[in-house]
From TrEMBL:
It comes from Mycolicibacterium brisbanense. Residues 43-136 form the Methyltransferase domain. SUPFAM superfamilies: S-adenosyl-L-methionine-dependent methyltransferases. InterPro entries: Methyltransf_25, SAM-dependent_MTases_sf. One of its GO terms (biological process) is methylation. One of its GO terms (molecular function) is methyltransferase activity. Pfam families: Methyltransf_25 (PF13649). The lineage of its organism: Bacteria, Bacillati, Actinomycetota, Actinomycetes, Mycobacteriales. This is Methyltransferase family protein. Keywords: Methyltransferase, S-adenosyl-L-methionine, Transferase.
Length: 209
């Protein structure tokens, strides 16, 4: 596993409009999750990026906070919410240092878990434990190692072993994560830059004990 990317690397991706995960809509897997009634307020959308999932849930009446450590992500998320007339809350904050107040019934992690190296992944899971209520659920949507290297990828074992003591992994399904192919991947993927692709992913449901 590569080292965890720095905040400035993410911030730069937003500043230059080159973030391959910014697709202008929520991930289909998260939309589907909401349709099944799997999400309860209060919700934390951690690593919220441009805010699509926070905006989706706020529009539907959930009590949701979108948090990201990249200030430009939060700027874009606020601008996106305002442009769509949605009153959504966003905050700059670090997923590795969440205030441990057992606040949330649901945490949505869309493409955050898979970016961490081993040490940061362990710190992240500890941090998550502190902000989830007992019985609360964390949904992890992560690019899978069955993919073509669209971004950082994880294997099933990485998810299983990350959520050990204090957690119960209730389900682990295969699904897809949608992204937009940048110049760097266009040739390898055999498509023009700007093409949307659905890459193999896992969706884990983990209960905080
Ligand atoms: C691959 S993007 C996914 C964004 C969004 N969830 C989505 O699916 O479109 C990962 C996001 O996590 C944020 N991030 C990375 N490390 C973080 C940390 N330690 N705390 C909070 N946000 C973080 C990045 O700035 C980036 O916006």
């Amino acid at each position: 596993m590569d080292e965890t990317p720095t905040m400035s690397r993410f911030d730069q991706a937003y500043a230059s409009n080159t973030a391959p995960w910014v697709i202008g809509e929520p991930q289909p897997a998260i939309v589907e999750l909401e349709h099944t009634g799997a999400i309860s307020s209060p919700v934390l959308d951690i690593g919220c990026g441009a805010g699509e999932h926070t905006i989706l849930l706020a529009r539907l009446g959930y009590d949701v906070l979108g948090m990201d450590f990249a200030p430009r992500a939060i700027e874009q998320a606020r601008a996106n919410a305002a442009a769509r007339g949605v009153d959504a809350r966003f905050e700059v904050g670090d997923a590795l240092r969440l205030a441990g107040t057992s606040t949330y019934r649901t945490v949505i992690d869309s493409a955050l878990f898979h970016i961490f190296d081993d040490a940061d992944r362990a710190a992240y899971v500890r941090s998550l434990h502190g902000v989830c209520r007992p019985g609360g659920l964390v949904y992890v949507l992560a690019l899978s190692d069955a993919g073509r290297g669209f971004g950082p990828q994880v294997g099933e074992d990485t998810i299983r072993s990350a959520f050990g003591t204090g957690w119960e992994l209730e389900s682990l399904q295969t699904t897809t994560y949608r992204g937009v192919v940048g110049e760097a991947h266009a040739e390898a993927f055999g498509v023009a830059a700007g093409t949307m692709v659905d890459e193999p992913a896992f969706l884990a449901r983990v209960r905080r004990l």
